[in-house]
Inverse folding.
């Protein structure tokens, strides 16, 4: 009888092994290896921050498993390096180490400057712009991670060319043959068309402030005030622009 009880208890020890062979000691649905290396949660406690919600539940609904308050991963910065927990997970940097590659620059500083936070050497991450004509949206990516999305106005009557381009020239204020100034100009396809801020007439009036989100231009991609300057300053010449 004693023997039987011992065997029963042995089989009741809370530990599960996923089909792929990964161990989940606390049965919260997250393998020990991910808790240790990615989320830095307690492998032996399904609710690391003790707020009544399991680590799995919090992560799947976008909440921090390290904050007993209902704080989203986007708004939590566990290691205080200026980069949110969400962005750390997207860039595969450490949630608990401000300087993952230990090169003296924090993860936040490296990503702000466009450098690889996982490489001790001075390596720039790839920058890319994507423009979705159907959605009238421009997204910008660093190292494959989408950094943001802005509303645009592309060309009326399908006049914006689809395809893969590179930024070929930049000008803080370019002149359009249509008699308009185009602030924060990023020329594509040798300047045949480009990305720029909502244009300004010579009399100072700004064109199309209420057009963002729908086609309005002669083929260029217009961005609003703020986003245009940000993108202009962020992209170097040679940046890939994919329009689809
Ligand atoms: Ca677990
Ligand atoms: Ca919790
Ligand atoms: Ca952080
Ligand atoms: Ca670093």
């Amino acid at each position: 009888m004693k023997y039987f009880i011992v065997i029963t208890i042995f089989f009741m020890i809370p530990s599960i092994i996923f089909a792929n062979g990964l161990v989940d000691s606390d049965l919260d649905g997250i393998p020990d290896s991910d808790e240790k290396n990615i989320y830095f949660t307690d492998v032996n406690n399904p609710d690391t921050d003790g707020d009544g919600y399991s680590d799995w539940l919090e992560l799947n609904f976008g909440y921090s498993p390290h904050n007993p308050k209902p704080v989203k991963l986007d708004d939590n910065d566990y290691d205080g390096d200026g980069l949110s927990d969400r962005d750390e997970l997207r860039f595969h940097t450490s949630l608990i180490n401000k300087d993952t590659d230990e090169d003296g620059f924090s993860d936040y500083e490296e990503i702000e400057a466009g450098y690889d936070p996982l490489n001790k050497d001075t390596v720039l991450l790839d920058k890319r712009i994507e423009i979705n004509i159907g959605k009238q949206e421009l997204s910008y990516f660093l190292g494959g991670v989408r950094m943001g999305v802005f509303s645009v106005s592309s060309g009326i009557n399908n006049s914006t060319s689809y395809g893969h381009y590179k930024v070929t020239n930049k000008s803080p204020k370019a002149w359009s043959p249509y008699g308009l100034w185009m602030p924060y100009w990023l020329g594509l396809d040798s300047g045949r068309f480009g990305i720029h801020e909502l244009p300004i007439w010579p009399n100072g009036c700004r064109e199309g402030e209420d057009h963002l989100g729908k086609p309005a231009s002669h083929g260029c991609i217009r961005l609003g005030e703020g986003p245009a300057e940000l993108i202009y300053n962020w992209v170097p010449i040679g940046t890939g622009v994919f329009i689809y």
Summary: The first helix runs from residue 2 to 12. The chain is about 20% helix and 25% strand. The chain has two domains: 2-113, 127-243. Strands lie at 16-17, 23-24, 127-132, 137-142, 145-153, 163-176, 180-188, 193-197, 221-223, 240-243.
